[in-house]
Write a structure and sequence with these properties.
The chain has 274 residues and is α/β, with parallel strands linked by helices. It is built from eleven helices and 15 strands. A five-stranded mixed beta sheet has the order 11-10-12-9-13, sandwiched between helices. Strands 5-1-6 form a three-stranded parallel beta sheet. A three-stranded antiparallel beta sheet has the order 2-3-4. The longest helix has 27 residues, at 2-28.
Amino acid sequence: MRKHLYLILSVLLVIVASAMIHTRCNRTGDAECQPTIERIRQKGVLLAGTTGDYHPLTFLEADGSYTGFGIEVAEAIAKQLGVDIRFVPTSWPTLTADVLEEPQKLDLAIGGITITDKRLETMLMSEGYLANGKTILCRREDADRFKSLEDIDKPEVKVMVNPGGTNEQLAREKLTHASIVVHHSNLEIPTLIAEGAADIMITEITEAPYYTSLDERLAAPLIDKPFTDGFIGVLMRKGQDDLLKAVNNAIEQMKADGSLRKLHEKYGLVYAFE
């Protein structure tokens, strides 16, 4: 009887302790009470998926390192968490699968990922840290030819996109008459446009200025009239609410201390968080 009594008391103590922790966490919202942060700190490294193909947000250098605006934001998030960071290769076609993969191989994904309702149906996204919108690249000689989506949406116009992301999604939804060509490497498309392999590249207002500055054959005639308005954020799987809160806190801190604005200036990006 005494043995059973001890067992019952032990179970009750565990239940009470768990309830106290749960109450404290709900009251304080402390990220330390949640499992994702604990797991990341225990291993000492934040695993960040990134495509490495999106200037100036994420780029895989020849030596295997990653550079770019989004990369520096990720490094700031890791610093706030007090851990190192390791960048894990992903791609636009496999981005969702990589984030949701079991066993988990990414804590989050970053670098040119637009916040969309579709992504929010199955995953979490942080608040925006960069304003963005869809625009085009074309040959400079054709700049006066393309003034709207209607000018592009014609059978004789060849539009090139990278697979699996919001660039392809916009092309499929809005350009039902144009010829759409999917090319596997986002980095190669601007040069292919300049060389005449296609007429239009669907891209972002963050990416287009970089390529026009590199190649005088290219133009972005609609850079001031983007087809969409939105923000880029950090992507992660559902159930990581503590990590989401920590990421949002890091972004807010970067806005408050001016470091996010400085990063925008460093990479020639428009700061939209006045």
